[in-house]
Amino acid sequence: MGSTPIQDLRAGTSKSAYLATPKPIEWDRFAAFNYSTEGHADDYADLDLAHYLNTIDTGTLSINKLVKDRIGTKYTDSDVTREKWPVYDSLVYETTHKGNLYALSAGEWYVIEQIYTRQIESDIKQIPASGLKLPAANPNEVENDYNKRVSATMKDIALLDRGNKRVTGANAPIECCDLLTLSGQLVHVKRKTRSSTLSHLFSQGVASAEALFWDDRYRKEIVSLLTSHPAHAALLAAPTFNAASFEVVYAVITKRTATWPASLPFLSQLNLANAARILRRMSYKVSLLRIDVP
Known about the structure:
five-stranded mixed beta sheet; 33% helix; alpha+beta
C-alpha cells in the first residue's frame, strides 16, 4: 500500500485524515468531546485531529497508541465523561495505491476500486447548485448567529435552527432544518471546518427529510414552531405531504476559492452522494449552496 496513517500523521502531510464518531451519538444532548491524553479534562465542541495531535508527542505515535488513547463524550445532563472509544476507531484516512483507494474508517480498512471512485465523483457533479441567494457570512460568525441574522433580515425565511422535535419511535429529537423558505427549501447550514462535521450535515438532512415524509406527528410539531410564520407553517400543514414540493439545500460556509465539494475526502463525497440518492427516492429535490466568507 502507499503511505501509512502513522507516517503521514507524524509528518503532518495528510490532507484526507480526520476524526469522526464511529457510531451515532445523541446530538441533541451532546455537550463536548475530550481526550484521555489530557485526562478528559479539556472539552472540545468538535472532533478535530489537530486537537488530539497537539496533546501528544507525534514522534511516539503508533497504531497501539491510537488504540490505547481514548475519546470521551459528555452530555448536557452531566459533567461526567460517559462514552469512550479508541482514537483509532475515530480515525478516517485515505491513501492510494496502484490506482485504487484505500480507506480506514471505524477501525476497518476498505479497498475502493478506481471505477467506483469515478462513479461517486460523477454523482457529486450531478447535484445542482441551489438557486437560493443567501448573504455572505462574517469572519468567525458561528452557524447559529448566521442563521439568526439571515432570518431577521430576509422576511421570506423562517428560523428553525434548534427546532428539534421527536419522531415516533425514535430515541432522540431531530432538527427539521436551520432555515425554511417560502419556496419550500429546507436549508441545512454548516461551516466547512471538518469533513466529519459535513458528513453529519448530510445525514442530518436525510433524517429530517425522512421524518417529514413518514411522520404526521413530527410535521405537526414542526408546524407548532412556526406560529409567527403562518405562510411557512402552511407548507407543512397540508393533509398529504408532497416531498416533490420541497428542496433539501446543503449550505456550506466556506471561502470563495474553495473547490467544494470536489475537495472533500472520498468518504465524505460518498456520504453526500448517498444522501442525495435517498432524498431523490422520496421525490425531494436536492442542491448545494456555498455561502461565501471572507
